[in-house]
Amino acid sequence: MSADPRSDAETHAWLVLLRAPLGGASVRGLVDRAGSAAAALQQLETLRHEFRLGDEALAWLRRPDPARIAADRRWLEDPAHSLLTWHDADYPVLLRETGAAPPGLFVVGDAALLWLPQVAVVGARSATAGGLANARSFAQHLAAAGFAVTSGLADGVDAAAHAATLDAGGTTLAVMGTGPDLVYPRKHRALAARIAAGGALVSEFPPGVEARPAHFPRRNRIIAGLSLGVLVVEASVQSGSLITARLAGEQGREVFALPGSIHNPLARGCHQLIRQGARLVETSAEIVEELAPLARALGERLRHRLAVAEPAGAVPSPAAAARDPDYAAVLDALGHDPVSVDELALRCAQPVAALSSMLLLLELDGAVHSLGGGRYQRSR
């Protein structure tokens, strides 16, 4: 599950609540009011009037489908699968601060990566060749600067940004409009597998939930909420990317847009954003310069989170990490010469996802220095 221990009854209760026909705010409110997911189900008859629970929701909460919940439990048995809930200390802090944070996130891959400083790169599904080239270039440079690149696994700009980040040895996260076990569009299944191996697939929808039109605006608010800023590469004036940008602005995040030809209809959405106050950017360095202070502030919050975490079963703090035998082995394997994450994974016999988390902690402690392009060396 997540880093915080959770009882079997609490896990069961969360799965029941996340499957209920309720809005996210109602689920969060029920759990906050009762103190836990299990208590919310136990106090259902008391809370039903306060939260105006409808007949359909009450019917499910009183008698959930045991086969469906059992299937969700089996999905969680995979070590690569996890569930971050509203009451988990490891729930991503930036997303928590938004007004419409989902009560639960199903994750395939390394859930700890959701705390990394992220830049969302979004744009048109039918992007031009120039737009795709820009998406790849900006994603690679942002990854080299130490940012995770987040997008929605869609055709066009999304897929180009994900793939380019992986090719550069960076970390990318895909927020899905389906359950975590389904990939839409299906042709991106190989790409999704690569993302899960070195980053994370994230969804608020439980396993088995198929793509529906209403899911994608909901997905977009999570993309914006996880990120320090959103870069729109190409977009028509009716694009879903503009929804992501609007949500980012409402959440107090930075919005960047690439200008384009006045004759390109996919540049009009970006020009509209610029007129509305988005920052016009021509190089990734402009984004890095703007977001670097925010990334450092997020790093300090992660440092504090690790410092106050429960010692039993918790991730080591950055300072303690260097003294941990596993982390010491990483430092020994790293040496003082630059080495790629893939090469280091071979030396340490560690999965790349787990190694990325360890390197993050060592970097926060100053023991490791990121050189960009997925290469690291010991600090001198």
TrEMBL record:
UniProt domain DprA winged helix: residue ranges: 316-374
Protein's recorded name: DNA-processing protein DprA
A Pfam short name: WHD_DprA
Smf/DprA SLOG domain residues: 83-291
Similarity field: Belongs to the DprA/Smf family.
UniProt cross-references to InterPro entries, sorted A to Z: DprA (IPR003488), DprA_WH (IPR041614), DrpA_SLOG (IPR057666), WH-like_DNA-bd_sf (IPR036388)
Source superkingdom: Bacteria
Gene3D superfamilies with a match to the protein in the record: 3.40.50.450, Winged helix-like DNA-binding domain superfamily/Winged helix DNA-binding domain
NCBIfam families: dprA (TIGR00732)
